[in-house]
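Protein modeling request. Please complete all fields; requests missing the sequence field cannot be processed.
Requester role: graduate student
Desired output: 3D structure, token encoding
Chains: 1
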Amino acid sequence: MGGGSVQRGEYTYPVFADKPVGVPKASILKGRIEPFYTPGQYDKVNLLANLYNARYSGKPHVRLSVWDAPGQERPTFKDAVSHKFKDTHVGLAFGPSWSTHWFKVVLTVPKDIAGDELLELHWDANNEGLIWSEDGVPLQGLTGGGERIEWVIPKAFRDGKEHTIYIEMACNGMFGNAPDGKTIIAPPDPNRHFTLAKADIVSVNVQARMLYIDMWELGDAARELPEDSTEQNRALTVAMKIIDTFQVDNQESILKCRKLAREIVGPDVDSWKVYEKGADPVVYGIGNCHIDSCWLWPWAETKRKVARSWTNQCDLMERYPEATFACSQAQQFKWLKQDYPAAYSRVKQKVKEGQFMPIGGSWVEHDTNSGESLVRQFFYGQRFFENEFGSRCRTFWLPDTFGYSSQLPQLCRLAGMDRFMTQKLSWNNINNFPHTTFMWVSPDGSQVICHMPPSETYTAEANLGDIRRSVTQHKTMRVDSSSLLLFGKGDGGGGPTWEHFEKLRRCAGISNTVGGIPKVKLGMTVDDFFDKLAPKASEFPTWYGELYFELHRGTYTTQANNKYFNRKSEAMLRDIELLATIASINHESYAYPTEDIDNMWESVLLCQFHDCLPGSCIEICYDDSDKASTSTL
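Delivered output (633 residues):
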């Protein structure tokens, strides 16, 4: 045995290796990682088999009944619960596309799991939904299809008694109702149906869930860091130790695996305090969800997407103190205020606490071609934010528009904004835009600090690769290497999930413990980030003129009728304002029609959303915009 001695003839010498030892091929070792925690042929013996301690479905623990709203109506909570509900069960399909179905869900937590650490309701119908309390308060959105299907069951529900919630099912996916469920701009399938596949009370094995995230990020480190680096080899070695240590249905082995994982992710990943240690931060994580006000779904569905997405974030802020969430579009705040006052009150409280950040200063995330529309977007947007939250926005936030007029820096400065965030030019298919952080200059000389996140997305999945790309793709590091990481489910809404926050904690832990990736920091605001850049404004490269987007084509010609209505409405409203002003000066009895003019302008500004006005929405969106324009005209 190693360390002993063996006599060979007249010589005696120590034997350190009791058998041949080879050098494993790195690619083979990497190939072991994902099967340890992902579905497939091993999911009955890998970590997935131990994620949950118990699962209960059906009566008496989960009793379901349903009321089907007629046609494509989207009734209020008060209206829905006034109707008679009929019994239903898992396995039934609901539809067609765009219909709404309200479920009454009566939960009775089994005594066997009442004392467990974490209990959740898992609800999955492969479509969007919103959980409501029995007294009509929207609690949390659901995405479906395996994403955001969990709702944490309150401690008060553990008394063995029946407790009622309601779930509003929307018969559309996150990206509408495209044929075969794909994310494409195509006529929606009018007859999609969605099967309720899951409605379970689940006891979560919290340590197994945390090990799942540990291995996710360890695997990322082993796959994405250079093979000739110490950090990659350490991550791969620890990952192999964890796989060899784990035993299915053995909780003690799970705890040992988590202890091994700390060699790489560090000791602090179960707390926000992981961000308070280690090197100075380079990457600043900001949650967002970028809800398209219309695109592959109509405005009416966007209103519900806002409620689903923003209640999600308020809930996560209670569980993750480091969470901050940037949210643009005054129109969407107004919709929430009008249709979901309880949710809006919750948002306002989180704004006051500094976690929920109104941003952008405009009415919607708009197209940028018409000068008059830009002025109005900023006027109505900034007025709303100041009236509702006590201050104007300093950062213009426009991640997804199809190009940027050269006049924007001038108009931003006039509207009180001296910072600008976008990332769309990273999608250019001809010229690679040369800067990450730069000074954007208008023809009149007005300037704003512009930052384009080098991760090149506004919907990052918060993986280790996103953190690395925030440095490896950064183009102005000689002046400042800082960058924003915008993470969370987007376009169709949703925003960050609990998994995003857990993954980012581990990325910070890896940086603290072994290095190899830049330090990520959560808990800061967008303004904090730009405040850090501001002292270096004179050193950043400059860009004069238009920021031209080299990808989406035909946006000046598609849906010409919609563009005609927009221009005609702008001209008409200017004339109305002029005539009303003259009348109010010349006739004391004449009252300037402020409310009517504001309502018309808000309607026009909504139609200038960056998918609506350029012509990249599905047909039903233009049915809505035609009605709005006709009403205005």
